[in-house]
Write a structure and sequence with these properties.
The complex is a heterodimer of chains A (342) and B (292). Chain A has 342 residues and is α/β, with parallel strands linked by helices. Chain A is built from 14 helices and eight strands. Chain A has two domains: 259 residues, TIM Barrel (Alpha-Beta Barrel), CATH 3.20.20.70; 50 residues, Helicase, Ruva Protein, domain 3. Helix content of chain A is 45%, strand content 12%. In chain A, helix 7 packs parallel to helix 8. In chain B, the strands form two sheets. A six-stranded parallel sheet of chain B has the order 3-2-1-4-5-6, with helices on both faces. In chain B, helix 2 links the parallel strand 2 and strand 3. The chains are: A alpha/beta (342), B alpha/beta (292). Chain A: Pfam families: DmpG_comm (PF07836), HMGL-like (PF00682). Chain A: It catalyses: (S)-4-hydroxy-2-oxohexanoate = propanal + pyruvate; (S)-4-hydroxy-2-oxopentanoate = acetaldehyde + pyruvate.
Chain lengths: 342, 292
């Protein structure tokens, strides 16, 4: 495989963070322990553990965690012999206090996430994370919503605050391979730091997008085992590793062990198959934040509205990540309109 | 009728919007605007309207202490910590619109007329001014154990001060929910939305209560909305409160008066309208005291 970067590829497994959405944030200590242990044994580079909406995300807005994420981080840290422990923080939801606590428990990497046009809210958290000595990466979410020039401008801001890599985060799973190529290539040419890519598989192109990103020079790559992430999940880690191996790129993670843990350890955690159903397909099609799926399904049931109509309406209103409260509101409005026959 | 002299520190979005609000006051006379950037839009507008302008920050007040008796601080939390000290030494009243939280929290819909002896009062945050009255309204009839608020504002209405100090927003709002709203535990979330045309400020308030009584709670909330409307006419419920077991959810929309920023920036409006209210209470109080 031809790559436009000679730096090693570093994989971050996100099923214990992005997958938290799928299990409605009900992960137990034992589940986190066994998944982390198996991933560590397989040689995973980074393992991310946090509430699905990042540190401090356990709320009525996003769903409460069954177990305090700090406890889950502590448990995961105990199991990380070689893997590094990562956390996610969204300024506006999580604060420096939570970041410091997670760092104290053993998290050594943080992704500081903002909407793709709002990078300047990350300055405070990036600089605190660097002071703590954490590896600090920027995460530009809903990357499909901004033109390439805007993305570059925002990534440069994160670089100026001290981010050591910036991710193109396709939170809606809406980007197509050419669009990924264009974005990664633009960032690689404009930044002195590494570029990352985080996919969602809502349009079934997560692996294809990730390959395009790697070819263009992305070196920080996310995946979730069994697609255990919001919506239709992320790039399926064990599949990506097998494909990369076939393309001659060995990243140092044991593929057989990944296959086994996907089957035996992560498989039993799935509440339902992570295939692309009509709901997750609409997320990618309408460009809506992937964690909205379960909320739209619940709101649809409550107000007797088709969840697809809710998601399409949210897309039209250009709702950004974190606006889960809009879902009930939109569902109520649609239901009112249905009753009035408009 | 005589008026009390006031000045604004900070020539950003909030400071400039406040200038227009104070022009309408019958007890406050705005005299000056103090900034640090002579090229800022706020200072230019202040100068055009005939106010004294200074671009050397707090030094201007140290050099011209007689310019005003009331100082509104619309800079940033970090800057206010320094400003508060100077104003205290000069014996001036500080109305703090940053989340620095040096003085006691103030929300005009909840504690009108109190705190009139304090030298520094804090206006919490825009999200706090919009949501804490509702938490208070629910708490006074149903005892709130946990309240969580989500403030979503248009990206264009969030200035650099807000953006650089986002933790101060969430932490100060959380404290306000607990200390002024009366919730045993609070949590605040802020979201910036860049959609064009810009969205109106919207706020969602979730309360978990001990004594669920839908009718009482609905009535208390409706009364509170009317109280806030007195100083923020564009403050309204998006739909009736939703009740779910021990939980109440309220959806609000705040449309601004369109003074400096267009109507979507209800977050600026609620802050400056509330600050104007408290300053007027103080001014009336000062004017009623026999002169020294």
């Amino acid at each position: 495989m031809k790559r436009k970067s000679d730096k090693p590829i570093k994989i971050t497994e996100v099923c214990l963070r992005d997958g938290s959405h799928v299990v409605a944030h009900q992960y137990t200590e034992e589940q986190v322990r066994s998944v982390t242990r198996a991933l560590d044994d397989a040689g995973m580079h980074y393992i991310e553990v946090s509430h699905g909406d990042g540190l401090g995300g356990s709320t009525l807005q996003y769903g409460r965690s069954l177990v305090n994420e700090m406890k889950l981080i502590e448990v995961a840290a105990e199991e990380c012999k070689n893997s590094k422990l990562a956390v996610l923080v969204l300024p506006g939801i999580g604060t420096a206090a939570e970041l410091k606590q997670a760092h104290g428990l053993g998290a050594s990497l943080v992704r500081v996430a903002t909407h793709v046009t709002e990078a300047d809210v990350s300055a405070q958290h990036i600089s605190i994370a660097r002071e703590l000595g954490m590896e600090t990466l920027g995460f530009l979410m809903m990357a499909h919503m901004a033109p390439v020039e805007k993305l570059v401008e925002q990534a440069k801001l994160m670089e100026s605050y001290g981010a050591q890599a910036v991710y193109v985060t396709d939170s809606a799973g809406a980007l197509l391979p050419d669009q990924v190529r264009e974005r990664i290539s633009a960032l690689r040419e404009s930044l002195d730091i590494e570029v990352g890519f985080h996919a969602h598989n809502n349009l079934s192109v997560a692996v294809a997008n990730t390959l395009a990103a790697i070819e263009e020079g992305a070196t920080r790559i996310d995946g979730s085992v069994r697609c255990l992430g919001a919506g239709a999940g992320n790039t399926q880690t064990e599949v990506l590793l097998a494909v990369l191996d076939r393309m001659g790129l060995n990243v140092g993670i044991d593929i057989y062990k990944m296959m086994d843990l996907a089957e035996n350890v992560v498989g039993p955690l799935l509440p339902r198959p992570q295939d692309i159903n009509r709901g997750s397909l609409v997320l990618g099609y309408a460009g809506v934040y992937s964690s909205f799926l379960l909320f739209a399904e619940r709101a649809g049931k409550r107000y007797n509205v088709d969840p697809r109509d809710i998601l399409l309406e949210l897309g039209k209103r250009k709702v950004v990540g974190g606006q889960e409260d809009m879902i009930l509101d939109v569902a109520a409005e649609l239901s009112k309109a249905q009753k009035l026959g408009v | 009728m005589s008026k009390v002299k006031a000045a604004i520190i900070g020539s950003g979005n909030i400071g400039t919007d406040l200038m227009y609000k104070l022009e309408r006051s019958d007890v406050i006379e705005l005299t000056a605007m103090i900034g640090i950037d002579p090229e800022s839009d706020g200072l230019k507008r202040a100068e055009e309207r005939g106010y004294k302008v200074f671009s050397n920050g707090i030094q201007a007040i140290e050099e011209n202490p007689d310019v005003a008796d009331i100082f509104f601080d619309a800079t940033s939390a970090k800057a206010h910590v320094r400003h508060a000290k100077v104003l205290r030494e000069l014996g001036k009243l500080a109305i703090d619109l940053t989340p620095a939280a040096r003085g006691p929290f103030f929300c005009p819909a909840i504690n009108p007329g109190s705190n009139l002896t304090e030298q520094n009062v804090n206006m919490i945050t825009c999200g706090g001014q919009a949501t804490i009255p509702i938490v208070y309204a629910v708490n006074r009839v149903a005892d709130v154990t946990y309240a969580e608020i989500v403030a979503t504002i248009a990206s264009k209405s969030a200035g650099p001060g807000t953006r650089a100090n986002i933790d101060e927003f969430t932490i100060t709002t959380k404290r306000g929910i607990e200390e002024v709203g009366g919730a045993d535990q609070g949590k605040a979330i802020i979201i910036l939305n860049p959609a064009e045309p810009p969205i109106l400020m919207r706020d969602t308030i979730y309360c978990e209560v001990k004594n669920m009584d839908q009718e009482k709670i609905s009535r208390s909330i409706a009364e509170m909305v009317e109280t806030v409307k007195q100083y923020v006419p564009g403050y309204r419920m998006k739909q009736e409160p939703i009740f779910d077991e021990n939980r109440v959810t309220v959806f609000l929309e705040v449309e601004g008066a369109g003074d400096y920023f267009p109507n979507y920036a209800g977050n600026l409006d609620i802050m400056t309208a509330a600050a104007t209210r408290v300053a007027e209470d103080y001014a009336r109080h000062m004017l009623s005291q026999p002169s020294k």
